[in-house]
C-alpha cells in the first residue's frame, strides 16, 4: 500500500506517531480523560489535516497563478456528535485572504479547485460530514 505511520504507546494516555515527513507528533488525551494534554487530540488533528490539505492546494495555486496575497488562513468550526462513536457530522470552513491587490475571482477559483477537485482529505470528510465552505476577502 505504501502509506505508513507507526504509533507507539508512551505510557498513560500518550502516544508518538511517525510521519513520512520525518517529523513525529505526540497524541494525548485531556486531563478530563486521564491524559496530561501533552499532545494533539486525534479528532482535532483531522481538522488540521483538512485545513492543511486544502491550504497546500491553495498556496500552490496562488504561486502558479502569480496572485498577490499578503496572508491567508483557514478557520474550521466543527460539530461533534453526542453519541459514540463521536464524529464530525457538520463543519464550516472559512478561507480568509488578506491583501491590497486581491484578485477575488482567481482566489475563489483556487479555493473551488481545492475543495472540488484536489483535496483528498476534503473528499474523505464528504463521506460523513455536511460541509459549508465560505471565502472572505479582506482588502487592506
TrEMBL record:
SUPFAM superfamilies: OsmC-like. Pfam families: OsmC. InterPro entries: KH_dom-like_a/b (IPR015946), OsmC/Ohr_fam (IPR003718), OsmC/Ohrsf (IPR036102). Gene3D superfamilies: 2.20.25.10, 3.30.300.20. PANTHER family: PROTEIN YHFA. This is OsmC family protein.
Amino acid at each position: 500500500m505504501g502509506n505508513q505511520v507507526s504509533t507507539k504507546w508512551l505510557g498513560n494516555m500518550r502516544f508518538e506517531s511517525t510521519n513520512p515527513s520525518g517529523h513525529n507528533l505526540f497524541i494525548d488525551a485531556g486531563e478530563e480523560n486521564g491524559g496530561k494534554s501533552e499532545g494533539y487530540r486525534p479528532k482535532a488533528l483531522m481538522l488540521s489535516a483538512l485545513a492543511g490539505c486544502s491550504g497546500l492546494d491553495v498556496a500552490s495555486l496562488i504561486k502558479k497563478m502569480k496572485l498577490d496575497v499578503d496572508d491567508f488562513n483557514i478557520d474550521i468550526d466543527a460539530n461533534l456528535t453526542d453519541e459514540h462513536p463521536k464524529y464530525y457530522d457538520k463543519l464550516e470552513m472559512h478561507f480568509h485572504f488578506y491583501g491590497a491587490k486581491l484578485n477575488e475571482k482567481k482566489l475563489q477559483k483556487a479555493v473551488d479547485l481545492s475543495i472540488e477537485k484536489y483535496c483528498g482529505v476534503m473528499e474523505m470528510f464528504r463521506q460523513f460530514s455536511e460541509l459549508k465552505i465560505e471565502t472572505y476577502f479582506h482588502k487592506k
